[in-house]
């Protein structure tokens, strides 16, 4: 199990996603509750769900209504309280090293990126952060989780941090991408990690994922599922039982195969097999 869970308080969920660098995840539903002045070792990134929240930071008050992002750097003193009696939000506490990797092209490696704004209105990024939080809370698909973290948080830091202006376009090492793609074809029945793929490509996980998407047009996770579905189609057409196909093709279970298969083909594995077998 890649997520360690602890119940903090009635109406809250707290987890540590160790397989993606130890990101801490909080889903809070508070009533008449206020977070006192505190600091974090990592980056605190929140999305307000209901009720709205406000916080004090360096002598200024900041308000984040529903659907808005709030962000605070490591070591910054801040607090939080609801704009109404009941308020809720989701929060990522992102370790410093993840932020460093996301903006690895900063000339001064000693400087940590900050945020130009404490309250960020970005509807697309809001949805991506909410989807990432949900995936890290519920999914056990290692490559999918790791890919989503890299893509979403890299995009967030490169779009909204003070390091954005220092970033230059990256080259795409095609030979490295091809090595990783061949590895996916060879290891599709197995559980593949982003670390394994990036080591094969000779790149950092953050750099590898960006150039893979740039070159192939899909994340390694989506590409891997394409390979698995293609092989599942071949085996189903030969009459192999669906449960056996799911196991042999590397899906977590049969329901995982059904979801992936339908997203690619538009039909279920059962429908596909029935049509081929008459």
Folded structure, characterized:
By secondary structure, this protein is α+β, with helices and mostly antiparallel strands. It has three domains: 3-165, Jelly Rolls, CATH 2.60.120; 169-217; 222-277, Homeodomain-like (Arc Repressor Mutant, subunit A), CATH 1.10.10.60. Helices cover 44% and strands 22% of the residues. It has ten helices and eleven strands. The protein has helices at 96-102, 123-138, 142-160, 174-187, 194-201, 205-216, 220-237, 242-248, 254-265, 269-277, and strands spanning 3-6, 12-17, 23-31, 34-38, 43-50, 53-57, 60-64, 69-72, 78-82, 86-94, 119-120. Strands 1-2-3-10-5-8-11 form a seven-stranded antiparallel beta sheet. A hairpin with a 5-residue loop joins strand 2 and strand 3. Helix 7 packs parallel to helix 10. The longest helix has 19 residues, at 142-160. It is globular and about 70 Å long. The two termini are 41 Å apart.
């Amino acid at each position: 199990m890649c997520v360690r869970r602890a119940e903090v308080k009635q109406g809250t969920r707290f987890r540590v996603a160790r397989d993606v660098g130890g990101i801490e995840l909080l889903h809070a539903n508070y009533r008449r509750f206020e977070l006192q002045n505190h600091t974090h070792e990592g980056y605190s990134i929140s999305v307000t769900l209901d009720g709205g929240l406000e916080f004090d930071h360096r002598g200024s008050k900041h308000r984040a209504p529903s659907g808005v992002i709030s962000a605070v750097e490591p070591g910054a003193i801040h607090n939080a309280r609801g704009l109404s009696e009941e308020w809720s939000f989701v929060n990522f506490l992102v370790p410093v090293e993840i932020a460093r990797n996301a903006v690895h092209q900063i000339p001064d490696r000693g400087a940590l990126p900050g945020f130009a704004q404490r309250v960020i209105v970005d509807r697309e990024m809001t949805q991506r952060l909410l989807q990432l939080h949900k995936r890290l809370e519920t999914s056990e698909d290692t490559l999918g989780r790791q890919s989503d973290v890299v893509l979403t948080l890299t995009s967030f830091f490169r779009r909204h941090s003070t390091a954005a202006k220092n970033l230059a376009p990256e080259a795409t090492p095609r030979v490295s991408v091809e090595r990783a793609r061949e590895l996916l074809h060879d290891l599709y029945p197995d559980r593949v990690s982003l670390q394994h793929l990036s080591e094969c490509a000779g790149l950092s996980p953050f750099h590898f994922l960006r150039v893979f998407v740039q070159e192939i047009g899909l994340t390694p996770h989506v590409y891997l599922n394409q390979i698995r579905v293609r092989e599942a189609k071949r085996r189903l057409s030969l009459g192999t039982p669906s449960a056996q196909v799911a196991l042999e093709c590397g899906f977590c279970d049969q329901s995982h195969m059904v979801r992936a298969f339908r997203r690619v083909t538009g039909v279920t594995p059962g429908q596909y097999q029935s049509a081929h077998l008459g």
